[in-house]
Specification:
Order of helices and strands: EHEHEHEHEHEHHHHH
Number of domains: 2
Largest sheet: 6 strands, parallel
Shape: globular
CATH topology of the largest domain: Rossmann fold
Number of strands: 6
Helix content: 40-55%
Organism: Paractinoplanes rishiriensis
GO molecular function, one term: DNA binding
Pfam families: GerE (PF00196), Response_reg (PF00072)
InterPro entries: CheY-like_superfamily, NreC/VraR/RcsB-like_REC, Sig_transdc_resp-reg_C-effctor, Sig_transdc_resp-reg_receiver, Tscrpt_reg_LuxR_C, WalR-like
Distance between the termini: 52 Å
Number of helices: 10
CATH architecture of the largest domain: 3-Layer(aba) Sandwich
Strand content: 5-15%
Radius of gyration: 18 Å
Keywords: DNA-binding, Phosphoprotein, Transcription, Transcription regulation
CATH superfamily of the largest domain: Response regulator
Structural class: alpha/beta
């Protein structure tokens, strides 16, 4: 009988020190191995195409493409890929968005040394892992919203508009955004106009402030 090898992990975080610390935690486990490291979501996609992993551990706020954006693309590319979010954001909106993109788990960086290995093992068993301290509060809040008819909080912009919003806030030109997203410059301008109208914003500065508040970019 063939003995399965260790779980092959793709790790994406824009802070090298965080990646190093996470790798130290995972390297202590004989059944887990980090095969690639990415500094942003776009690089994570490229690495996953070149050498598909079993499990992707993604930060949420990263340059060029967030972890949530990357997760949507990764699940399209590799439907059986397990995804964990390792984040500093103890945030309800990100939690529900992580569920939307099919995440197997949501781990806080502050508890990585305690929870990350367990979350990896749970993901590979097809079991969800949510950071224990907030599960009760999140479920209670969700049930209260459902009773009030609100349901899961909706996104203000579409997935594509979110991608454009992030890149505009990072200072990319219309031409650069068009090249990064493989769309026309005219389409970029249309998305930007729609974003400004939907969010009630006037210019790039207000848009950048919104992107920081939404966790799309770091201040």
């Amino acid at each position: 009988m063939t003995v399965p090898g260790p779980t092959r992990i793709l790790l994406a975080d824009d802070h090298a020190l965080v990646r190093r610390g996470v790798r130290l935690i995972l390297d202590q486990e004989s059944d887990l191995t980090v095969i690639a490291e990415a500094a942003d979501g776009a690089e994570a996609l490229d690495l996953a195409r070149a050498d598909p992993p079993d499990l992707a551990i993604l930060d949420i706020a990263m340059p060029r493409m967030t972890g949530l954006q990357a997760a949507r693309e990764l699940t399209r590319m590799q439907p059986d890929l397990r995804i964990l979010f390792l984040t500093m954001y103890d945030n309800e909106q990100y939690f529900f968005e992580a569920l939307r993109v099919g995440a197997a788990g949501y781990v806080l960086k502050s508890a990585a040394d305690r929870d990350l290995v367990e979350a990896c093992h749970a993901a590979m068993r097809d079991e969800p892992f949510l950071y224990p301290a907030t599960v009760t509060a999140l479920v209670r809040d969700y049930l209260e919203r459902v009773r009030g008819g609100a349901g899961i909080p909706a996104k203000a912009v579409t997935d594509r508009e979110e991608e454009v919003l992030k890149l505009v806030a990072e200072g990319h030109s219309t031409r650069q955004i068009a090249e990064l997203l493989f769309i026309s410059a005219k389409t970029v301008e249309r998305h930007r106009a729609n974003i400004l109208q939907k969010l009630g914003l006037r210019d790039r500065l207000e848009l950048t402030r919104y992107a920081i508040r939404a966790g799309l970019i770091e201040p």
